[in-house]
Inverse folding.
């Protein structure tokens, strides 16, 4: 698809009809004045008269539509009459109302009211909607008439417009109708009343608002209107709304309970917190759990009540309370949460650990760290786990725990050290990998070292330490260390892995060629090329070649450099499959440079056909980055022609 | 215009992505195992019954996120395009292993279904606000794709309506639930970058303009495409197939559309609002979801500088980004900065800001978290991360910036009155009449 910009008006056409669209669009928009130029400038009376004349003329609909928009931005009462004349036009009425809703002053108000007397159906509804948007208080009597319209959609529109106007008269008219309106209008009447009441409430007229809300919530209206009125009735009463709030939380109907939950978050005051807390003991567990979430969302939180709920009771409620403490809890909650976290593995103990990890209070860190040296039994592993999750500085205690007879404690300590060990103590983990005290801990030690190594701030220093350690490590440990070095990355890491790739050890060659093949920085390119060129023709050489091509594809933006790398790759390719891979990659990046490489490859007799086809494909590619004439010239000189 | 009343605090009951980075396996759910059946199936009382409105390309992605959730029962699809109705029904039926998904043409019929708890609104932007507010009034919670509104007035009414009706609203601003963006915003909000000075958003196209009227084409049969319904609240215009891709649909009869001129291509419907509803939304989050900026300057050298009441600058910037994928944002404080993008990566002024974590560990996509956040809030009645108040503020910032672009001059915004100061032209651009019979 293309877009055409004419002035600053836009015409869109499908590609296939672009040319004809250009012609026609010029005709369609010829009379339009650039709004961009008009913006920011005062519309002169002369210019406004010209625009009004367009509306009055036999101009095409699109021209009149755009004129309406210009008048919406800058028109005055002078334009109202002509705009109003379009309100009976099914195509242009909405355009006219765009202007009429925007133009300030009585003239537009009066024109809309006047139109409301003569229009019917959708056009009338549109006008009524606009009256509502403009909140024209003088229109209340005319809207009152429309409240009784036989067309229920018109009556509904009038009801909502009256609500938007939101004065005492509109409230009166709507209230009168609440009990008597036809069923299909009553919802709109209730909506109008609730909107009206909300305005009263925002103006501080709470008593008036309450009266309306109470009327609506007890009327025979759709449930959603009752919910809205109930919410309003609670909030408009302020603290006196607590009993009504509790009534909802105890209501058998789910929707009433739900409006209670959301309103509980809105009603301010400590008394509300206390009432909600008291409700926890009375509510069914599933409901109590949801009340806890509402309590935690309040700006004033009754934390002791939530803490109490976390300690004992139904699991559903306890789970909610434990989760809620993650949001609102502080250091005072630590003992209770640790007790729960230390319970046998369950949803509750998991939630408690998660909450201990999450609580924002910085004092939690000290509370955990202080307990660790004195901890006994299962609590040791639990505390260490929290230390790791919160990344608390407790290195010495954690190192000590690596010698704990309990495997679970040692595992937790390895995990925590991975997350927390500072650079000077990285050697502790390296040692645990190179000379493990217990074979069963090796896996945890390797994972811990990897976690720690990749977050070390000095990448080169870290890689150097690991590289040094690998010199004395056993063959299998060397492999693990190389994988960690690969994850760390950087110059030293690349150098270490290159050396490993050049050894005769098949295991080291395997891991290092894999790591180089996935290397994420461009500096691996010369290393890979060298291995591809000089290595024996084996799977490692092929990996190096593919890794080199991948770097060219992913990281090299310059077309010439990319093509040069593909050319290098071709020179290093030993097997037809690798040569074909290079040709395929040339096609994927169509440019003059890749075309030249393809043409050059086509000079190799056994690849002539494939490379020639690639050259043609490159030259004809939609994304070809170059001049088509130059491509033609290159192909012609090479004698490559498209088969007929 | 109505004021924005500060709404209640939101403390997501889900563990924040920041805190659970690296500990995701421990994050609990609000549904205890006791609510699950023996086979792990969700009890009927815990299910959220959902219907889809206007499920196109983006909507299909959202639909996938919904269908992944065990507690979702997707039962109906509504579209004015027959081909989409059939295609989406097939996706849903295939997943559910039955033929039960209902196909509906008029979304009001879907909203009348009392068995449906929530709707996924993924129509073109023209319909978002109107459909969302109609859904709220019908008693449905909703996940609504962005941009959610077409102008400032709609943004305010959206927030007001969701508050008044007590419905749960989630804007399709899924980056609020992506850990790496959350982490970056948290750094800015919590003062770890020092006193915040500037937040940068990538609008992906900074040209605003009035929308136009296309060359008429033959209107298809109503069963194939109901053009009148497709236009919905937009001012009338003749049928044109190019407009059927909702993404490129002008903003109704709209005053302020936008043009994306990146990569040498011109695309309608992009610009400040299209991407700003993501990037600016993240900036809003970074500044603590405060009200939108109060001053918007004319664009200069590919930048539009807006200023919050507290002096922090919101800068819409076309170029100068670290290549971190689409939707980049950058937050600068007195002592540090962070930049993040859709690649899931972060670049920071100092590794110390990571507080011992790695960037990989913080993590990025998938966007399923945003749908999960919505569904959990449907149950708890809490505030989603992309709630209507947050969406309102971010959208106002975008609309106001668009107005400054269109007028090509500075505009100042009065937050108390929700109007531009002594600026009738700008004020007239705050709203736009809807085509009959639609109203908000």
């Amino acid at each position: 698809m293309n877009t055409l910009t004419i002035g600053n008006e836009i015409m869109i056409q499908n590609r296939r009809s672009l040319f004809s669209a250009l012609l026609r669009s010029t005709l369609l928009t010829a009379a339009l004045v650039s709004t961009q130029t008009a913006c920011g400038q005062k519309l002169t009376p002369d210019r406004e008269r010209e625009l009004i004349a367009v509306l009055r003329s036999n101009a095409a609909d699109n021209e009149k539509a755009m004129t309406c928009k210009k008048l919406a931005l800058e028109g005055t009462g002078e334009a109202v009459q002509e705009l109003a004349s379009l309100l009976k036009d099914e195509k242009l009425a909405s355009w006219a109302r765009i202007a009429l809703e925007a133009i300030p002053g009585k003239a537009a108000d009066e024109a809309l009211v006047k139109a409301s007397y003569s229009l019917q159906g959708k056009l009338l509804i549109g006008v009524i909607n606009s009256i509502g948007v403009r909140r024209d208080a003088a229109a209340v009597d005319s809207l009152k008439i429309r409240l009784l319209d036989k067309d229920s959609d018109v009556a509904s529109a009038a009801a909502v417009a009256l609500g938007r106007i939101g004065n005492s008269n509109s409230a009166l008219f709507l209230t009168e109708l609440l009990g008597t309106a036809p069923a299909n209008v009553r919802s709109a009447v209730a909506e109008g009343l609730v909107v009206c009441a909300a305005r009263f409430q925002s103006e501080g007229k709470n008593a008036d608002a309450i009266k309306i809300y109470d009327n609506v919530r007890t009327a025979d209206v759709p449930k959603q209107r009752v919910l809205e009125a109930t919410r309003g009735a609670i909030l408009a009463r302020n603290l006196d709304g607590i009993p009504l709030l509790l009534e909802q939380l105890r209501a058998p109907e789910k929707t009433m309970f739900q409006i209670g939950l959301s309103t509980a978050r809105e009603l301010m005051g400590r008394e509300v917190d206390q009432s909600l807390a008291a409700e926890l003991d009375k509510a069914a567990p599933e409901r109590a759990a949801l009340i806890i979430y509402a309590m935690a969302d309040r700006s004033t939180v009754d934390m002791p009540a939530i803490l109490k709920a976390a300690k004992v009771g139904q699991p559903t409620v306890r789970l909610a309370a434990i989760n809620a403490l993650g949001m609102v809890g502080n250091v005072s909650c630590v003992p209770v949460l640790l007790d729960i976290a230390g319970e046998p593995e369950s949803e509750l103990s998991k939630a408690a650990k998660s909450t201990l990890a999450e609580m924002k209070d910085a004092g939690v860190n000290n509370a955990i760290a202080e307990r660790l040296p004195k901890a006994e039994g299962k609590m040791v592993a639990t505390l260490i786990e929290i230390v790791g999750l919160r990344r608390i500085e407790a290195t010495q205690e954690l190192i000590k725990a690596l010698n704990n007879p309990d495997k679970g404690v040692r595992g937790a300590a390895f995990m925590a050290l991975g997350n927390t060990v500072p650079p000077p103590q990285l050697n502790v983990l390296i040692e645990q990998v190179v000379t493990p005290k217990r074979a069963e801990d090796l896996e945890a030690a390797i994972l811990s070292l990897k976690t720690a190594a990749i977050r070390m701030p000095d990448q080169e220093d870290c890689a150097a330490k690991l590289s040094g350690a690998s010199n004395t490590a056993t063959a299998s440990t060397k492999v693990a260390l190389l994988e960690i070095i690969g994850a760390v990355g950087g110059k030293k890491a690349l150098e270490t892995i290159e050396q490993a790739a050049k050894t005769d050890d098949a295991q080291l060659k395997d891991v290092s060629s894999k790591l180089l093949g996935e290397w994420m920085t461009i500096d691996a390119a010369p290393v890979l090329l060298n291995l591809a060129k000089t290595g024996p023709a084996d799977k490692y050489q092929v990996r190096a070649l593919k890794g080199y091509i991948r770097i060219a594809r992913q990281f090299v933006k310059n077309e010439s450099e990319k093509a040069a790398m593909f050319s290098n790759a071709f020179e290093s390719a030993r097997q037809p499959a690798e040569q074909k891979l290079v040709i395929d990659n040339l096609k994927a990046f169509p440019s003059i440079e890749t075309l030249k490489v393809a043409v050059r490859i086509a000079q190799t007799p056994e690849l002539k056909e494939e490379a020639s086809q690639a050259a043609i494909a490159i030259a004809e590619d939609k994304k070809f980055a170059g001049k088509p004439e130059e491509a033609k010239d290159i192909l012609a000189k090479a004698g490559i022609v498209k088969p007929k | 215009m109505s004021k924005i009343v500060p709404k209640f605090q939101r403390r997501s009951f889900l563990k924040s992505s920041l805190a659970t980075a690296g500990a995701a396996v421990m994050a609990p759910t609000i549904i205890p195992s006791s609510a699950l059946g023996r086979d792990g199936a969700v009890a009927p009382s815990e299910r959220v019954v959902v219907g889809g409105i206007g499920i196109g390309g983006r909507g299909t992605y959202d639909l996938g996120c919904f269908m992944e959730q065990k507690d979702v029962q997707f039962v109906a699809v509504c579209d004015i395009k027959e081909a989409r109705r059939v295609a989406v029904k097939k996706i849903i039926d295939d997943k559910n292993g039955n033929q039960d998904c209902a196909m509906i043409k008029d979304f009001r019929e879907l909203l009348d279904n009392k068995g449906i708890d929530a709707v996924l609104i993924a129509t073109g932007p023209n319909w978002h606000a109107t459909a969302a507010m109609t859904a709220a009034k019908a008693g449905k919670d909703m996940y609504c794709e962005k941009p959610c509104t077409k102008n400032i007035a709609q943004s305010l009414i959206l927030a007001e309506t969701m508050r008044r009706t007590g419905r749960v609203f989630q804007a399709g601003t899924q980056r609020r639930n992506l850990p790496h963006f959350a982490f970056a915003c948290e750094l800015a909000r919590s003062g770890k970058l020092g006193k915040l000075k500037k937040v940068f958003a990538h609008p992906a196209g900074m040209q605003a303009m009035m929308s136009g009227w296309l060359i008429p084409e033959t209107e298809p049969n109503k069963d194939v495409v109901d053009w009148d319904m497709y236009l919905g609240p937009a001012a009338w215009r003749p049928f044109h197939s190019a407009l059927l891709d909702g993404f490129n649909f002008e903003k109704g009869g709209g005053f302020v559309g936008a043009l994306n001129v990146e990569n040498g291509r011109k695309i309608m419907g992009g610009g400040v609002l299209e991407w700003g509803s993501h990037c600016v939304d993240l900036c809003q989050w970074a500044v603590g979801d405060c009200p939108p900026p109060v001053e918007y300057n004319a664009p200069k050298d590919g930048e539009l500088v807006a200023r919050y009441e507290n002096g922090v600058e919101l800068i819409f910037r076309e170029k100068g980004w670290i290549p971190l994928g689409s939707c980049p944002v950058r937050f600068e404080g007195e002592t540090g900065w962070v930049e993040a993008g859709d690649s899931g990566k972060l670049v920071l002024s100092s590794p110390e800001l990571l507080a011992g974590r790695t960037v990989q560990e913080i993590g990025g996509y998938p966007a399923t978290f945003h749908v999960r956040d919505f569904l959990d809030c449907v149950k708890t009645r809490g505030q989603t991360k992309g709630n209507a108040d947050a969406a309102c503020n971010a959208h106002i910032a975008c609309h106001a910036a668009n107005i400054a672009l269109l007028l090509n001059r500075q505009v100042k915004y009065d937050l108390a009155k929700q109007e531009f100061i002594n600026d009738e032209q700008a004020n007239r651009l705050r709203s736009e009449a809807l085509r009959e019979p639609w109203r908000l």
Remarks:
- Chain B is about 30% helix and 15% strand.
